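Dear colleagues,

As part of the handover before I leave the project, I'm documenting each prediction I ran so the next person doesn't have to rerun anything. This entry is a single chain, and its sequence is reproduced below.
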Amino acid sequence: MLDIGYALSTRFPDPPAADYRRADNRALRYDLFCGDVYLADTVADRELSTAWGWVPVLDFAWALCDIVERLDRDPRGSRAAGPYRAELDFTESTELMRFERRFGFVDIRADWSPAGEPPLTFSHTELRRESRDFLHDLLADLVDLHEDLGENPAVWQLQARFPRV
Protein backbone atom coordinates (compact mmCIF):
# COMPACT_ATOMS: atom_id res chain seq x y z
CA MET A 1 0.00 0.00 0.00
CA LEU A 2 1.23 3.45 -0.93
CA ASP A 3 1.53 6.27 1.60
CA ILE A 4 2.57 9.76 0.50
CA GLY A 5 3.41 12.35 3.11
CA TYR A 6 5.23 15.56 3.94
CA ALA A 7 6.65 17.71 6.70
CA LEU A 8 6.95 21.48 6.41
CA SER A 9 10.35 22.93 7.24
CA THR A 10 11.00 25.25 10.14
CA ARG A 11 14.38 26.16 8.61
CA PHE A 12 12.82 27.59 5.45
CA PRO A 13 9.60 29.37 6.51
CA ASP A 14 7.35 31.18 4.07
CA PRO A 15 8.07 34.92 3.70
CA PRO A 16 6.22 36.81 6.46
CA ALA A 17 4.50 39.13 3.98
CA ALA A 18 3.24 36.33 1.69
CA ASP A 19 -0.14 37.13 0.16
CA TYR A 20 -1.62 33.64 -0.15
CA ARG A 21 -4.85 34.90 -1.72
CA ARG A 22 -2.98 36.40 -4.70
CA ALA A 23 0.06 34.15 -4.97
CA ASP A 24 0.63 33.11 -8.58
CA ASN A 25 1.48 29.61 -9.81
CA ARG A 26 5.20 30.27 -9.61
CA ALA A 27 5.07 31.37 -5.99
CA LEU A 28 2.78 28.49 -5.06
CA ARG A 29 4.99 25.94 -6.78
CA TYR A 30 8.48 27.14 -5.94
CA ASP A 31 8.58 29.86 -3.28
CA LEU A 32 6.15 28.71 -0.58
CA PHE A 33 5.59 25.64 1.59
CA CYS A 34 9.09 24.14 1.72
CA GLY A 35 9.84 20.92 3.56
CA ASP A 36 10.34 17.24 2.87
CA VAL A 37 8.27 14.55 1.18
CA TYR A 38 8.15 10.78 1.10
CA LEU A 39 6.55 7.92 -0.79
CA ALA A 40 6.33 4.72 1.23
CA ASP A 41 5.39 1.13 0.54
CA THR A 42 3.78 0.25 3.85
CA VAL A 43 3.65 -3.48 3.05
CA ALA A 44 7.36 -3.79 2.19
CA ASP A 45 8.28 -1.17 4.83
CA ARG A 46 10.39 0.83 2.36
CA GLU A 47 10.33 4.48 1.37
CA LEU A 48 11.82 7.14 -0.82
CA SER A 49 12.17 10.35 1.14
CA THR A 50 13.95 13.64 0.99
CA ALA A 51 15.80 15.05 3.98
CA TRP A 52 16.78 18.41 2.58
CA GLY A 53 14.17 20.67 4.17
CA TRP A 54 13.75 22.87 1.09
CA VAL A 55 11.58 20.77 -1.25
CA PRO A 56 8.56 22.80 -2.46
CA VAL A 57 5.90 20.46 -1.08
CA LEU A 58 2.95 21.80 -3.09
CA ASP A 59 5.03 21.63 -6.27
CA PHE A 60 5.86 18.00 -5.49
CA ALA A 61 2.17 17.12 -5.11
CA TRP A 62 1.26 19.06 -8.27
CA ALA A 63 4.08 17.49 -10.31
CA LEU A 64 3.27 14.01 -9.04
CA CYS A 65 -0.34 14.33 -10.22
CA ASP A 66 0.94 15.61 -13.58
CA ILE A 67 3.35 12.69 -13.96
CA VAL A 68 0.69 10.10 -13.17
CA GLU A 69 -1.44 11.53 -15.98
CA ARG A 70 1.49 11.60 -18.42
CA LEU A 71 2.16 7.93 -17.72
CA ASP A 72 -1.41 7.14 -18.78
CA ARG A 73 -1.50 8.58 -22.27
CA ASP A 74 -1.72 5.25 -24.13
CA PRO A 75 -5.33 4.51 -25.10
CA ARG A 76 -4.75 0.83 -24.23
CA GLY A 77 -4.42 1.79 -20.55
CA SER A 78 -3.12 -0.98 -18.30
CA ARG A 79 -2.76 -3.31 -21.30
CA ALA A 80 -0.05 -1.06 -22.77
CA ALA A 81 3.34 -2.71 -22.43
CA GLY A 82 5.29 0.56 -22.48
CA PRO A 83 7.62 1.40 -20.98
CA TYR A 84 6.40 4.94 -20.35
CA ARG A 85 8.80 7.15 -18.43
CA ALA A 86 8.71 10.45 -16.60
CA GLU A 87 11.01 12.30 -14.22
CA LEU A 88 10.37 14.63 -11.33
CA ASP A 89 13.29 17.00 -10.81
CA PHE A 90 13.90 18.81 -7.57
CA THR A 91 14.53 22.55 -7.76
CA GLU A 92 17.97 23.64 -6.54
CA SER A 93 19.34 20.13 -7.03
CA THR A 94 20.33 17.64 -9.70
CA GLU A 95 18.38 14.85 -7.98
CA LEU A 96 15.58 13.11 -9.88
CA MET A 97 12.74 10.81 -9.00
CA ARG A 98 12.16 8.48 -11.95
CA PHE A 99 8.88 6.82 -12.88
CA GLU A 100 8.49 3.96 -15.34
CA ARG A 101 5.16 2.39 -16.20
CA ARG A 102 4.84 -1.06 -17.73
CA PHE A 103 1.36 -2.46 -18.13
CA GLY A 104 -0.57 -1.33 -15.03
CA PHE A 105 2.41 -0.91 -12.68
CA VAL A 106 4.75 1.99 -11.99
CA ASP A 107 8.32 1.61 -10.70
CA ILE A 108 9.64 4.61 -8.77
CA ARG A 109 13.35 5.19 -8.23
CA ALA A 110 15.33 8.10 -6.82
CA ASP A 111 18.84 9.18 -7.77
CA TRP A 112 19.79 9.48 -4.10
CA SER A 113 18.83 5.88 -3.28
CA PRO A 114 21.66 3.40 -2.69
CA ALA A 115 22.88 1.63 -5.84
CA GLY A 116 21.11 -1.66 -6.40
CA GLU A 117 18.09 -0.71 -4.29
CA PRO A 118 14.94 -2.11 -5.95
CA PRO A 119 12.30 0.41 -7.00
CA LEU A 120 9.05 1.02 -5.18
CA THR A 121 6.31 -0.51 -7.32
CA PHE A 122 2.62 0.38 -7.22
CA SER A 123 -0.34 -0.09 -9.50
CA HIS A 124 -0.98 2.95 -11.64
CA THR A 125 -4.52 3.13 -10.30
CA GLU A 126 -3.29 3.26 -6.70
CA LEU A 127 -0.64 5.86 -7.58
CA ARG A 128 -3.27 8.06 -9.24
CA ARG A 129 -5.69 7.78 -6.33
CA GLU A 130 -3.07 8.36 -3.63
CA SER A 131 -1.35 11.24 -5.44
CA ARG A 132 -4.66 13.08 -5.84
CA ASP A 133 -5.64 12.36 -2.24
CA PHE A 134 -2.25 13.67 -1.15
CA LEU A 135 -2.73 16.87 -3.16
CA HIS A 136 -6.19 17.53 -1.71
CA ASP A 137 -5.15 16.65 1.85
CA LEU A 138 -2.08 18.88 1.54
CA LEU A 139 -4.18 21.79 0.25
CA ALA A 140 -6.64 21.32 3.12
CA ASP A 141 -3.75 21.41 5.61
CA LEU A 142 -2.25 24.50 3.99
CA VAL A 143 -5.62 26.29 3.97
CA ASP A 144 -5.93 25.48 7.68
CA LEU A 145 -2.58 27.20 8.19
CA HIS A 146 -3.28 30.12 5.82
CA GLU A 147 -7.01 30.78 5.36
CA ASP A 148 -6.44 33.22 2.48
CA LEU A 149 -4.99 30.38 0.40
CA GLY A 150 -8.49 28.91 0.11
CA GLU A 151 -9.53 32.01 -1.85
CA ASN A 152 -6.71 31.73 -4.39
CA PRO A 153 -8.01 31.05 -7.94
CA ALA A 154 -4.87 29.03 -8.79
CA VAL A 155 -5.71 26.64 -5.95
CA TRP A 156 -9.28 26.30 -7.23
CA GLN A 157 -7.99 25.48 -10.72
CA LEU A 158 -5.54 22.93 -9.32
CA GLN A 159 -8.27 21.18 -7.35
CA ALA A 160 -10.53 21.12 -10.40
CA ARG A 161 -7.77 19.80 -12.66
CA PHE A 162 -6.97 16.89 -10.32
CA PRO A 163 -10.19 15.92 -8.51
CA ARG A 164 -10.16 13.09 -6.02
CA VAL A 165 -10.67 9.69 -7.63
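The first strand starts at residue 2 and ends at 8. The two ends are 16 Å apart (CA to CA).

All the best with the project,
I.
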